[in-house]
Structures are given as structure tokens and as C-alpha cells.
């Protein structure tokens, strides 16, 4: 397991170094997110290929983690490649760092590689679980992952279609899942990490993966997810988005509140 982790970490560091070169040319640090998502797929596929668990369990790890990372990387990559504007989070970093930007962004990209490798712990634990049969928790994790996959894919598609319409400029998306949650994509992303935890829990030392979905929830709710996204939304469409905040649940899909 340790060898696979170190190999994966090296691959993720190399990938993020290449994407750092891309951002040097494009001045768009959003490529780091593409590398982070691809890194998850790489770690899951390495674990599935080199793990010692029975084939069914390794297939489950490879499909769930691999497809999740690849779909997310395609979605983020399409957005970064077609949108000339850099994500507000990284534009703010450029303004705050001011000097030695290339060196600072290189360290930032490498930190994301390390984080991606550490977050792959559920894949590694599950792929080295020697139990001969799938546990009920693993089956529940597989079912939850399907729900998360469908939900996040649908939310991303609904938002993409909404933004493509000229009349949507300056408005918050209130269609489909976005009527029930301001961030349904983040909610289903977090559900996927709960599913990965369920895959890992039956393994020896599976409890060690317990902090992973909690850490992801903290990132989404307090760091790089909702706070940064909503700050940018309030700058670009303050009145409409403030009303959207009053009417719609922030994270967990729920019934909209009465319009104020």
C-alpha cells in the first residue's frame, strides 16, 4: 500500500507541475482543480490495479473513484478551457500575493497534489481489504455513489445549460436541483466522499478514513467551496443572489422558502 501511495503521489506531483506550466502560459490557475480531480482518478485506478483485495472490491474502487475523478476533471477542464476569465478565488490570490507569483503558484499546485494523495486513503484501504465477500456497508457505499454520481452530473448539466442562455446573464440559476439548493453540485460531491468512506470502513483500519468526508465537508462549507463561490456571485449579481440566498437552502436540498 505504501508503495502505491508514493507512486501515486509522484504521479500527482508531476501532473500538477505540467498544469502549473499551462497556467504560466494562460495565466489561469483554474487548471489546478482539473489536476486535483484527475489525481483522484489516478489514485483510485492505481489502488484498484495494485491492491491485494478480491477482484470485485478492486473493480468497485476503480469504477467509483476513477469515474468520479474523470467526470469531474472533464467538467472542470471544459469550464477552464472555454472561459477566458480566471476563477475569482485564484484572481484574488494573484492580487494578494503580488510578487514571486510563479514560485508561489508552483507550491500551491504541489500542495494540491499532496492533498489529493492524502484524500485517496479510502481507495487504498478498500483495495487492500482481504475479506472474501463484499460487506453490506460496501454495497451501501456503491448505491450511494450512484446517487451522488447522477445528482452531481445532473446539477452540473443544469447549470451549464442555464449559463449558456443570454437571458441568464446576471441571474442565479433556479432551475432543477438549483431550485432546492444553492450548491447541489457540492452536496452530491460530498455524498460521493461519504460513499468512499463506506467502501473503506469494513477494511482493517478502515476507521482511519473517517476524517476524510468531514474534511471535505469543512472545505466545501467553510474554505474553497460555498464561501468563495457565493462571494463571487454577490459581487457579480448582488441583488438577485442575495434574494436567492434568502429563498434557497445553502447546501442540503430542501423546499424553497417563501419569496421575500
Detail the topology: elements first, then pairings.
Layout: H1 2-26, H2 31-50, H3 55-82, H4 88-97, H5 101-119, H6 121-127, H7 136-163, H8 184-200, H9 211-222, H10 226-236, H11 238-247
Helix pairs in contact: 1-2, 1-5, 2-3, 2-5, 3-7, 6-8, 7-8, 8-9, 10-11
Description:
With 260 residues, this protein is mainly alpha-helical. Helix content is 72%, strand content 0%. α2 (31-50) runs antiparallel to α3. The termini are far apart. The mean pLDDT is 93.
Indicate the proportion of strand residues: under 5%
* Alpha-carbon Rg, integer: 19 Å
What is the β-strand count? 0
Characterize the largest beta sheet: strand count, sense, and whether it forms a barrel: none
Query: How many separate domains make up the residues?
Result: 2
Described by its quaternary structure, the protein is: single chain
How confident overall, as mean pLDDT? 93
| Count of helical regions | 11
Distance between the termini: 55 Å
What structural class results from the helix and strand content?
Answer: mainly alpha
Uncertain residue segments: none
Order of helices and strands: HHHHHHHHHHH
Molecular shape: globular
Percent helix range: over 70%
Pick out its properties.
single chain
In a few lines, what is going on in this structure?
With 260 residues, the protein is an all-alpha fold. It has helices at 2-26, 31-50, 55-82, 88-97, 101-119, 121-127, 136-163, 184-200, 211-222, 226-236, 238-247.
Amino acid at each position: 500500500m505504501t508503495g502505491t501511495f508514493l507512486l501515486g503521489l509522484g504521479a500527482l506531483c508531476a501532473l500538477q507541475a505540467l498544469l502549473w506550466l499551462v497556467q504560466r502560459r494562460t495565466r489561469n490557475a483554474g487548471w489546478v482543480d482539473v489536476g486535483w480531480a484527475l489525481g483522484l482518478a489516478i489514485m483510485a485506478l492505481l489502488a484498484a490495479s495494485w491492491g491485494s483485495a478480491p477482484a470485485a472490491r478492486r473493480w468497485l474502487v476503480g469504477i467509483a473513484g476513477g469515474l468520479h475523478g474523470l467526470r469531474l476533471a472533464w467538467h472542470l477542464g471544459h469550464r477552464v478551457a472555454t472561459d477566458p476569465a480566471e476563477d475569482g478565488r485564484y484572481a484574488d490570490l494573484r492580487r494578494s500575493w503580488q510578487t514571486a507569483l510563479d514560485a508561489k503558484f508552483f507550491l500551491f499546485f504541489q500542495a494540491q497534489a499532496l492533498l489529493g494523495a492524502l484524500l485517496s486513503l479510502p481507495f487504498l484501504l478498500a483495495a487492500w481489504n482481504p475479506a472474501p465477500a463484499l460487506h453490506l456497508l460496501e454495497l451501501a457505499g456503491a448505491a450511494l455513489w450512484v446517487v451522488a454520481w447522477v445528482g452531481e452530473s445532473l446539477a452540473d448539466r443544469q447549470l451549464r445549460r442555464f449559463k449558456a442562455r443570454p437571458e441568464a446573464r446576471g441571474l442565479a440559476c433556479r432551475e432543477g436541483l438549483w431550485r432546492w439548493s444553492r450548491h447541489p453540485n457540492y452536496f452530491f460531491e460530498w455524498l460521493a466522499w461519504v460513499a468512499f468512506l463506506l467502501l473503506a470502513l469494513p477494511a482493517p483500519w478502515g476507521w482511519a478514513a473517517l476524517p476524510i468526508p468531514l474534511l471535505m465537508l469543512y472545505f466545501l462549507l467553510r474554505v474553497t467551496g460555498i464561501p468563495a463561490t457565493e462571494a463571487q456571485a454577490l459581487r457579480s449579481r448582488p441583488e438577485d443572489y442575495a434574494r436567492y440566498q434568502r429563498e434557497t437552502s445553502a447546501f442540503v436540498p430542501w423546499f424553497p422558502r417563501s419569496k421575500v
